[in-house]
Each structure stands twice: as C-alpha cells, then as structure tokens.
Request: fold
Amino acid sequence: MGCDIAIRIGGQAGQGLNVLSGLIGKSCLREGLWVFAFHDVMSRIRGGHNFSQLRISDTERQAPSGRVDILVCLDKNTLELHGAETDGLIVYDSAQLPGGLPAGMRLLAVPLGELAKNAGGNAKMSNAVAAGAVLALAGLSLDRLLEVLGEMFSKKSTEVVEQNRSSARAGYDHVLQNYAEHVLEGVSGVPGTRRMLITGSEAFALGAIASGIRFYSAYPMSPSTGVMEYLAARQKEYGLVVEQAEDEIAAINMAIGASFAGARAMTGTSGGGLALMVEGISLAGMTETPVVILDAQRPAPATGFPTRTEQGDLLFVVNAGHGEFARAVFAPGGARDAAEIVGKAFHLAEKYQTPVFVLGDQYLNDSSWTVERIDTREPSFARQGMLAEDELKRMAPYSYRRYALTASGVSPAILPGTPGQVSYADSDEHTEEGHITESAQIREQMVEKRLRKLEGLRAEMPPPCVFPDGKADLYLVGWGSTLGILAEATDLLRNKGMNAGYIHFTGVYPLRKDAIPDSVAQHARLIAVENNARGQFASLLKSETGVVLRGIVGKYDGRPFTPDEVARRVEELK
Amino acid sequence: MIDLSRYGSDDPIAWCPGCGNFGILSAVKQALAELDIEPENTLFVSGIGQAAKLPHYLRCNMFNGLHGRALPVAAGARIANHDLAVIAVGGDGDGYSEGGNHFIHAMRRNLNMTYLVHDNQIYALTKGQASPTTDKLTKTGTTPWGVYGEPERPLALAVASNCSFVARGFSGDQEHLTGIIKEAITHKGFSFVDILQPCVTFNKINTFKWYSERVTKLDGSYDPRNRIKAFETALEWGDRIPIGVIFKGREGSYEEATGLASAEPLAHRGPAMDIGRLLEEFK
Reply:
C-alpha cells in the first residue's frame, strides 16, 4: 500500500509559510518521496490568510490533494478556516491558541515559539520546530531536515545553523514524546534519486538559460515576476541581460529590438501586461522578428485575482495583435515541461521569425513540483533562420532583401553589423527590401508570405499526449498546467470501473487537423477540463479541427482543480 | 571621411517639397560621413510619423517600428550589440506624446545612443493636429477653439531628468546642426537633440522665417554643466530661442554601469552555458 499524505500549513503573510513548506518539502524529497506544494496566497504582504498545501507520496503525483491529513496552524484563523475540513491531525501553537478549542478534533499542542526559545533560538525558528514536528508525525527521520537547515543557514553562521537544528529537534522530540500514538505509518521513499523540487517559474528561467537566452525585458507582474528575478540574479554569471522596462509596451519592444540586433530575447508578463504588449506582438509579426513571450496567467478581467490561478488567456493569446500573422502557442503540463518548452519556443520563433508564446499560470509558476533532474542540454543550437555564409558572400554589396519572398515564407535574416549589407525592418507594409509600399500586389504577396509560416509551424506542433491509446470510452481533454490533474482524475475514474482516459495538449496553437485522431473523436466521449469558464480550448479545438467536445468541466474560482473534484464532476455530468 | 553617396538609399523620398526634414537628412549624412561610421555599423530606429521615414532614405540598418516606440526598440538593440551606433529618430507627436514615458525612462537608463526629434509643433502625417509642443491657443483640426494645454518643453524635461546630453538644432542651419549631431553621436551616454523643423504644409505659424528670426546660437561663454542656467535656457521660448548644446548631465553610461561596455556584445556570445551547477539548488 502506497503512502499519500496531505499537509496543509496556514498562517498570515509574513509568517514564513514558504520557508516551512520548503523545509518539509526538501526533507521529503531527499527521502526519495514525491512532493507537490501549492501555495494559496492573498494579495498582501503582511497579515491576511495564506496556506500551503503539501502532498507527499511514494508514487508520482503532479497535482494538489484536496484532503488534509496534517493541518499546521500558525495562527488561530487557520484552525477556524480549515479545522472542520481536516480529516487528520491538527498541530497548533499552544501558546498562541489558548483555551476554547473546538472539541472532537485531534488537536496536538506544540508550543512552537517556546520550544524554539528553549532550544536556544528565537521566535523566527518556530518554523524549524514545526518542520521537525511534521516530520515526526509523518514517521520520517529528522536527518534530512538537519541537513537542509545546515545548507540553508550556513551562510549566516554556524550558531544560527545550530539554533535552527536544535529547534527542529525540539519539535521532533516533542511529538514523539507526547503524541507517539498519532505517528503515521508506512511513509517511506527510496532515497538516492536525482529528482529536484522546483517551481514552475524557476523551471521556465532554467529552460531559458539552458537555451542560451541573452536578453529578458519585463515589468514586474504576478505571477510572472519569479522568472524575471531568477534570471536577474544569475545574469552576470550566465551572460545575459535582464532589463526592467518602464512598462510592458517597452518590455516587448526592447525584446524585439534586442532580437533584431541578434540577441536571443524573451519577455514575460501576466494577462494585464500582455494586453499592453498587444501592438508589439503585431509588430513582431509584421517585422518578422523572433520573440518568445511568457504569459503567466491569472484570473482576469482587469486586475482580477492577482495572486490566484486561471487558464483564461488562451483565446486572447491566440488572437492578440491587430492583423493576420503566424504565431505558435505552447502550454507546458508541469515544471519539467516548462523547462523544455522554452528551448522549443526559441527554436521555432527564430526558425519562423515570428512571436511564440509560452503559457504558464499562477498554479504552474508558483507551485513546487518534483521532477526528474533536468538534463543539461547539448551546447545550444545556433540561431535559426539566418542567411547562409556562402549566400552572403555571393550577394552584391547592399543588395540584401530582408523580406525576400520564399516558398516557406521565411526570409533568411542577417544581423545589423554584417559587412557590406544593411537590413531594413519595417512595420509598414513593405517591399522585399523593407521599404514602405502602397502596391496591392506586394501587399497580397506579403500577407501570403507571412501566413505560409503558420502552416510550417502547424506541422511542427507536437501531438497531444493520449492515455490510454485509443481505447477509452471517455476522455478528459485538457491543456497546460492541468496535466497531472487529468492523469490522476483518470486513475480515480478507472478505479471506479469507468473506461476513462485523458488527452493533454502542450502545443495548443496552431493545431493539426488530425490533432485528435478520428478513431478517438468518433468513438469516445470527449470532455473539456479547463481552468476557465467557457472552455476556451474546446472552442479552439472546434475551430481548428472540427472536433466537438461534449461537455465542459470548468473552474474559475481562482483555485486549481484537485483530481477528486474533476473525477466527481465528470461523474456528475452523466 | 566617408563619401556621402554611400549613405544614399534607393527609396524615393515621400516628404513635401521644401520640408524641413530634408535639412535634417543632409545633416545626418554629413555627420556620419565626417565621423567615418560605416552604414552597416549604424542602426536607425524610428516610430511612425513623417520624421520616422528618415531611415528609409539612408543606407543604414533600420528598424521602422510603431508610433512612439522607437526608444525601447533602440534600447534593446543597443544592449544586444553595443558595437552598433544606435540612433533613434522621431517627431514631436511620436516622441513626446505617444512615446513620452519611454523618453523619460530612456534618459534614466542612459544607454550610449542618440535620439533625434524632428520638432515641427504639429502632427503632419495625420494632416495637421496639435502636438504636445504646439503653442497655446493654436487652432488645429482637433482643437478648433485653440490648444488649451500648456506646451511641453522637452529640453526642460530633459534637464530635469539630468539627461546626459541635451541640445537643440535648427533644420535651417545645416552646418550648425551637423556639428550638434556629431557631438551627440560621440557623446558617451544618452544624447537627445530636439530639432526645430518647419512643416511647410500644416504649420503656417512656426515657419522657416519664424524660426530664423528667433534662433540664437549659444556662444562660447555658455556652460552646459550649469544645471540651473541650463533649465532657464531650456525654458526660453519667445523672441529668442536658443540652439546649441544646452545641458550636459549625468556621466557614466548604462553600458559602463553594467559591464557591457567591456564585454563581448550579447549578439555575438557563444552557445548556452552548462546549468548543472544551478540544478544543485533544487535537490
């Protein structure tokens, strides 16, 4: 029998929930367990109520759990808000929650602050105490936590390390001495794996560095800022420049300028910032300049739910920009995918000289995911879409044509600074040379040239992931960050005897006509599962392929799905 | 000095006969030639407007982008390759209205590049509406009772921003303008030149004659390092309109501050580096 426990940690902003969640998560990762952590955060810096939902299992789980086996209350509010839905144990700071506690709950008093002080530390080390207490309750050893604390605080001083370790030990011992009968059994992993615990934002940034990003311009906006900060901290070491722009309009124009001049360039934002970038997206399409645009989605319209999640920008991204031009849109299914997709996005943006989008969301970007170690890439690919050296040599001086008509629609590029040639890029409709034109004939040729690239891109899009292969009666159809949720909801439905499956898209636009094979489309019931209200991918799939999904399980409360919820709602559809 | 003909483009010029832009085009070519900057090592970035067409009439690299957005494109390009001489070109509507925010932040960022603004105090491409520098009470197609807004004083804004290099030229005095453009291009830091330029079609007030009677060259006794005096000079607009280098502000460019100046341009850097060490953070 496998283990799968859910730990919810609640408290106020500023109490260090992320630190505590990270301590427990890393300790469990090193035990060889799979860890998934989702953070439910309010849009404020201090106070309010936040919680982290950690899931520890011995098999791969890439989705949040709706259960609570251990609830850690860093404040009284947490007990009031989550106590009733807790199936298991409640750890609370007995100093902060005196008396009047509800009856009937399995309450385990752990005086977090007091134990930290007695162990020679201070109130801030309550987190180490709580981490020790949780690991004791989970029946795990303390060793990994001591190791993690050592690494985390070694830069401060050995004294701080020892104070934290003593605090952790105090919390651990307190539970074993007082609540030994509550310790869970059967939680164990296989240590020695090379897995990593990484957020989606970190994965996007790592993927960008691994693919040779040279320029990232952005304006801070949740939940995309994590990518910018990760890159900014490593820019000198990895030879890139991160520029904080005055607004998103500037951010995308800077990325376009950098790309035109020869730097592999990317920008990132969320929906509201993307709205400002729209004319720039069209500019990249018209000037045929490669650029990768990350949209870490959050619930909108307008400011919406700044710290929460939604898959609500899909149709916006597919259509953003005045006029008709080619683009591709990718939506990774988790952190591992996120790291890989950025390289693919750069490759296609350069090969087709057009904008390529990568969609994250708050759930994907901010959650911590356990992934197999990301491979260090081969030395990065050379820039795509460039004019070959020998062709350049044969060219008469100053005769280069930036928008030369070709069968593929892609005109080989040169960079400014190329001896004996200059490059004219133009946002007006232009001649092959890149000068302004009023010609009806050239206009038609250029529109067709730019749209030919869409067909090239279509052929490059990866097929969806289909499980099981063409034999289920019902398929959950989803895209982007819900991959792990779809997979687990499918398991739940199959365990109940339903012949269910899932189809997941990472390459969401353009779609191949046969994206969903006829054998599946005609014989199985297809149900859209999307973190939005209207089933945006279902609409896109219908317009691109003609396949109609029969039923939509949508969610637009700003929170991610849980697999149980998806399974239950699919059953209710019948 | 490079032969002027090397900067000529084949694209037919679409400005009105007698347009003040011709004088600016000639001064730009003359400055590049005198500075020996090869066409292929120069990148002109423009937005939209009559001024923004200028790069089409040069044989230099060009990115003719969107209305108001020349500066951020130019910034990205300059960061990507600091071996290029990057010159952004625009008009008063393009740069001071649609692109006003970019202008302020380009001065703050202080990349080593040049920004030429053809200032004719009117929207010409869209046929004669008020711009941010149109004089008060001027009647135009969109301001039938006269402009009620206070005209922007871009040079004063630049002095307030401690812009690295602030100058004003006049398209009717090419020799003087050439000298200013040369100084702007060789200046280390963000160099901004507002160029008075008569619009022969839509601005019947601020004509060639009107400007000629007013422009006054700053003489050798003027100290562009005196910020207070520069602010006064930048605000002067009446019977006397000063032209010349009005202010020299902050020193030390973005490229120097970030270490880019002494490093290989981003555009020429080799393949990606090994991320193996970064992965250790996540175990």
